[in-house]
Specification:
This protein has helices spanning 84-109, 169-172, 179-195, 201-208, 245-248, and strands at 37-47, 50-61, 66-75, 119-129, 133-143, 151-160, 165-166, 218-220, 224-229, 239-244. It folds into two domains: 24-166, Heat Shock Protein 90 (2-Layer Sandwich), CATH 3.30.565; 169-261, Alpha-Beta Complex (Actin, Chain A, domain 4), CATH 3.90.640.20. The strands form two sheets. It has a seven-stranded mixed sheet, covered by helices on one side. Strands 8-9-10 form a three-stranded antiparallel sheet. By secondary structure, it is α+β, with helices and mostly antiparallel strands.
């Protein structure tokens, strides 16, 4: 948000959602003119001269009246070649989420069913950037026709531009380090404190116990690792906890690019 997991190429063609059974390959990314509204906003962040801009696309399908709005980061300028793999990772993440949404709509309404009012919105913010490491938190909100409540989902990607690959927890911590236990022991009381009288101990313990699945949505910040607990994982709504580097430092591998941040 764990994740996670984002397009040096601008989205140019309208995302066809009239055929909901289609695959992610239906989505076209190119540099040509677009039928959808696609724009590049001014840079949203810099770190050691790393230039990041926001790409935005808004697509409206008249039939069956279903919309997709997406905002996503791009590395441009002098670092565009160095960030090419990151941009492709963004493309893949966006495509997969849109394909999943199309599948949901198809299952709920059928290929020719009434999908009026169905929508998907994807947004993001950069939680950390220092020229080598870039950490991005994504949020998605989807509505299906006739549903009373939106479906919220958190996604995350932390990328090592020097290595040209996404960073995993295994890349950060020492082999065999019991980092999930340490995170759980920190997060469970913090979540209980956050929720106060609305906290449910069993719910929190189940959703924040020391499993890789519970801690799959994570990002780097200047002070620690931001853990995102998805909707209804520990309580209604999305919950976040920053586990400080001071807590994690004894477990972080000295050769990890994160070690210097601690």
């Amino acid at each position: 948000m764990g994740i996670r997991v984002l397009l040096s190429l601008a989205v140019c063609h309208a995302l066809s959602i009239s055929q909901f059974a289609g695959s992610a390959s239906d989505i076209s990314f190119s540099n040509g003119p677009s039928a959808a509204a696609t724009a590049s906003r001014p840079e949203t962040g810099r770190g050691d001269d790393l230039q990041i801009v926001t790409k935005e696309t808004k697509t409206q399908s008249k039939i069956p009246n279903c919309s997709i709005d997406a905002r996503f980061p791009q590395i441009v300028g002098a670092d565009e070649r160095r960030g090419a793999k990151f941009n492709l990772e963004v493309t893949d993440l966006i495509e997969k989420r849109i394909a999943g949404f199309k599948s949901q709509v198809s299952q709920a309404n059928g290929p020719s069913g009434n999908s009026a009012g169905a929508s998907l919105t994807i947004d993001y913010h950069t939680t950390f950037s220092n020229g080598r490491l870039l950490s991005v938190a994504f949020s998605t909100e989807s509505h299906l026709a006739g549903s009373r409540h939106p479906n919220l989902e958190a996604l995350a990607l932390t990328y090592d531009l020097q290595a040209g690959a996404g960073l995993t927890m295994a890349d950060i911590f020492q082999p065999g380090a019991d980092f999930l236990r340490v995170m759980a022991e920190f997060c469970i009381p913090k979540l209980t404190e956050q929720l106060g009288q609305n906290s449910d101990h069993n719910w929190i313990k189940r959703g924040a116990s020391a499993t890789a699945e519970n801690y799959k949505v994570w990002n780097l910040t200047k002070t620690g690792m931001l853990i995102t607990f998805d909707t209804n994982q520990v309580a209604p709504g999305v919950r976040k906890v920053i586990v400080p580097f001071s807590t994690l430092r004894p477990l972080i591998a000295t050769g990890s690019p994160v070690y210097q941040l601690t």
